[in-house]
Structure formats: C-alpha cells, structure tokens
C-alpha cells in the first residue's frame, strides 16, 4: 500500500499524454480478439505468428519491474479516464475500456460493448465478467466520492442472460453508509431490460487512502 509512486508512475496517469501506450493497448486488444475468434488462419500459420509475437514482446520488455498505476481518490465528477486498471485502463489491453461518467448527483453511468473474449454460456456474457464490471463501477463511484474502500461482500443477481455484442448500460449508486461500511448498488441494462443487479458492501480504509 502507501503512495510512494515514482514520477514516471504519476505521469502515466495521464492517458492523453501517452498516445503510444494507448495505441499499443488498442492494437493488442484487437489481436487478442482475433486470436480467440479467428477461423481464417491455420494452426501452422498461428504457430508462426506466435514466434513473431514473442519477438515483439522481447523488444518492449526492458526488465522485470512492472510499473504501478496510481488509483486516485476524488471528489471527482465527469468522465473517468483510467490508465493501467483492468476496467477503464486505456494502457491495459484487458480493459474494455469501459466508459464511465460520474454524474453531479453522485451516481455513475457507463457503457461497454463486451468483447467476445468474455463469452460464457449460451453465447452470452460470462457471469464472472459482469460481476467484475458491477464491482468496478461501484468501487470507482466510491473513489470518485472520495471514499477509498475495498469490496467486502459482493452479491450479484443474474436476471437474464446478458447478450454479447450489444451495448451494456451500467449504473451505480450509494444505498447507505454505516461508519466504515458503505453499501452500493449497481445494475446492467441491455436494450432497456435489466439483466444483472448487484449490491456491494464496501469497507472504507481505516487509515490513509489506499492507492
Ligand atoms: C478520482 C476518481 C476516479 C477514479 C478512477 C479510478 C479508476 C479505477 C478504479 C478501480 C476500482 C476497482 C474497484 C474494485 C474493488 C476491488 O476489487 S477491492 C478487492 C477485493 N477486496 C478485497 O481484496 C478485500 C480483502 N479484505 C480486506 O482487506 C479486509 O478484510 C477488509 C474488507 C478491508 C476489512 O478488514 P478490516 O478493515 O480489518 O475490517 P474490520 O475492522 O474487521 O471490520 C469493519 C467492519 O466491516 C465489517 N466487515 C469486514 N469485512 C467484511 C466483509 N468481507 N464483508 C462484510 N462486512 C465486513 C465488519 O463486520 C465490521 O463491521 P462492524 O463490526 O463495524 O459493524
């Protein structure tokens, strides 16, 4: 924990200032989607691609140290711009990235069209992935409200299969606060129909903010 980030790590929180990192993350995102879903390339061709990819990776890995991206704490409203995190992070190929806005009324609203990489049963979105999304939107809302908290208990109710390749509309709000315990709620809606609802019991840090 602690906030002993290096200058580089602080500078990396500004995605607009690092178009190369944003571009390479987007290119790798497209690559992952292609690798997982291709029907065009043969197994031999993909084996050759693997060799070329390893060379590229060797070219951008300078050492064994991973950069750490700070998670800021608000108060904040507006569009959330993430850097390295797996949900909003514009530098992270795993991130959607999810576009979330913190509204002036203290709620969060977001939209994301899930990648086929997160396919679950029935050609729908994997339930673990939708749980990940609602947890992240609630956790981010709390951070934007100035509360540095960890998820203590996450409860997810799956109302219907969440379809792939359709925009998922996420919303989150705070239900109640009881000392360090903050209860937040979230919902995923597709084409106006709720498919997932969730409640998160978050425990606020007893001491200084956790980055
Ligand atoms: C500027 C803004 C832009 C933001 C731009 C950021 C972009 C990017 C944002 C990404 C946002 C990602 C959001 C992901 C959110 C995670 O993924 S968080 C990771 C998953 N969670 C964890 O790993 C938590 C692991 N657990 C722990 O660390 C500790 O158990 C906890 C939860 C901190 C609690 O420990 P503790 O502080 O010692 O708590 P303790 O004093 O024992 O208990 C305090 C109270 O809480 C209750 N409690 C404790 N644990 C629990 C529990 N698990 N469940 C229910 N109640 C509990 C106790 O019963 C107690 O209640 P009371 O007796 O007071 O009534």
TrEMBL record:
<protein>
    <recommendedName>
        <fullName>Acyl-coenzyme A thioesterase THEM4</fullName>
        <ecNumber>3.1.2.2</ecNumber>
    </recommendedName>
</protein>
<keyword id="KW-0963">Cytoplasm</keyword>
<dbReference type="InterPro" id="IPR052365">
    <property type="entry name" value="THEM4/THEM5_acyl-CoA_thioest"/>
</dbReference>
<keyword id="KW-0472">Membrane</keyword>
<keyword id="KW-0378">Hydrolase</keyword>
<keyword id="KW-0443">Lipid metabolism</keyword>
<dbReference type="Pfam" id="PF03061">
    <property type="entry name" value="4HBT"/>
</dbReference>
<feature type="domain" description="Thioesterase">
    <location>
        <begin position="122"/>
        <end position="193"/>
    </location>
</feature>
<keyword id="KW-0809">Transit peptide</keyword>
<dbReference type="InterPro" id="IPR006683">
    <property type="entry name" value="Thioestr_dom"/>
</dbReference>
<comment type="similarity">
    <text>Belongs to the THEM4/THEM5 thioesterase family.</text>
</comment>
<keyword id="KW-0276">Fatty acid metabolism</keyword>
<keyword id="KW-0053">Apoptosis</keyword>
<dbReference type="InterPro" id="IPR029069">
    <property type="entry name" value="HotDog_dom_sf"/>
</dbReference>
<keyword id="KW-0966">Cell projection</keyword>
<keyword id="KW-1003">Cell membrane</keyword>
């Amino acid at each position: 924990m602690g906030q002993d980030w290096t200058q580089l790590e602080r500078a990396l929180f500004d995605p607009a200032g690092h178009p190369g990192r944003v571009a390479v993350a987007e290119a790798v995102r497209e690559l992952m989607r292609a690798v997982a879903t291709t029907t065009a390339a043969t197994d031999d061709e993909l084996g050759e691609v693997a060799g070329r990819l390893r060379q590229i990776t060797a070219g951008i890995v300078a050492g064994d140290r991973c950069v750490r991206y700070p998670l800021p704490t608000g108060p904040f409203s507006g569009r959330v711009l993430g850097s390295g995190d797996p949900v909003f992070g514009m530098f992270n190929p795993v991130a959607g990235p999810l576009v979330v806005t913190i509204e002036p009324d203290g709620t969060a609203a977001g939209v994301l069209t899930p990648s086929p990489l997160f396919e679950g049963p029935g050609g729908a979105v994997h339930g673990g992935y939708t749980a990940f999304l609602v947890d992240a939107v609630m956790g981010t809302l709390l951070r934007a409200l100035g509360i540095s908290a960890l998820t203590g208990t996450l409860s997810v109710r799956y109302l219907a299969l969440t379809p792939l390749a359709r925009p998922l509309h996420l919303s989150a709000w705070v239900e109640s606060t009881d000392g360090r315990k903050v209860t937040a709620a979230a919902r995923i809606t597709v084409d106006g129909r709720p498919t997932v609802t969730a409640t998160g019991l978050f425990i606020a840090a007893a001491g200084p903010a956790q980055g």
